[in-house]
Design a protein that fits this description.
58% of the residues lie in helices and 1% in strands. It is mainly α. It has a two-stranded parallel sheet with strand order 1-2. Helix 2 crosses helix 9 (184-208), helix 6 (135-156) packs antiparallel against helix 9 (184-208) and helix 10 (219-240) crosses helix 11. It is globular, with a radius of gyration of 22 Å. It starts with 12 loop residues before the first helix and ends with a helix.
């Protein structure tokens, strides 16, 4: 192992070479992330094994900086995988959980966007009375979100919003693979972490205006969520006269959007 046990005053080429070899031998991020997904489907996200894997994942992500590897015990390797992970059919089962349902609804040819998407699915019922007061600031937040998501897309050379947000990338570019010296699973795990940080940032930004630590959903919060929804689905195209938009923007506050929908269904 090349774990030096601390900082070095004089780093030599053999130290770098040893660390590189150590990294290649012990980088288990992809395996850990895949195992976490499998157990989250079968045992639940908050099961003991998922919590243990989440801790290992945190160690694995920091491994290139710390030199401390995440040891992945063989006994944590899943015996079966949900079908949407597209593993060996003999080791797969049909998942009835939400990811399995979404996977089953996809067209056979995922590249056929016309089959996958029929318009943008705009739901005017999600626009609550008074949402207009939040539209101006929503445009500002959307433009920042747009720029940040574009940066991630450019970094990984993935230009499909659905792939970026879901983490299910059809194919990473050869450039990305060669320059990162990582397996696709490892790149995918890092991509997911970046997107999660982005979503968390804009979720917190949404609430900052209200200065409410309890974050109990009130009508004013739903009005603002409506404004975010409007800007992403209709406003951006209308006022900037372009089709390119990121529909994921309002779903950063999916809990509030869902509350609006529940209220509509109950009324």
């Amino acid at each position: 192992s090349s774990n030096f046990g601390g900082a070095l005053d004089n780093v030599k080429i053999e130290h770098i070479a040893n660390f590189f070899v150590d990294h290649m031998e012990n980088d288990n991020l992809g395996r850990i992330a895949a195992a976490h997904m499998a157990y989250a489907d079968s045992d639940g996200l908050y099961s003991n094994i998922c919590i243990e894997l989440a801790k290992l994942c945190s160690i694995a992500v920091d491994f290139p900086k710390t030199g401390v590897p995440a040891i992945f015990p063989k006994e944590l390797s899943p015996k079966k995988y949900p079908h949407f992970m597209e593993k060996d059919p003999t080791k797969s089962y049909h998942s009835e959980k939400i990811l399995g349902q979404i996977y089953d609804r996809l067209p056979n040819n995922i590249n056929d966007r016309s089959a996958a998407i029929d318009g943008n699915g705009f739901d005017a019922n999600l626009l609550l009375e008074g949402y207009e007061q939040y539209v101006e600031n929503a445009f500002v937040d959307f433009e920042d979100y747009y720029a940040d998501l574009c940066d991630i897309m450019e970094s990984y050379q993935i230009y499909d919003e659905a792939e970026i947000i879901s983490g299910y990338v059809g194919q990473f570019s050869a450039y990305d693979y060669q320059n990162r010296h990582e397996k696709n699973g490892d790149i995918q795990a890092r991509l997911c972490k970046e997107v999660t940080l982005l979503i968390d940032y804009y979720h917190d930004l949404f609430w900052d205006e209200f200065g409410d630590d309890t974050r109990e959903i009130e009508f004013k919060h739903m009005q603002k969520a409506s404004a975010w929804y409007y800007v992403a689905y209709e406003g951006y195209k209308k006022y900037y006269d372009q089709e390119d938009t990121f529909l994921s923007f309002p779903w950063v506050v999916v809990d509030i959007i869902c509350q609006i929908k529940r209220n509509i269904n109950q009324s």
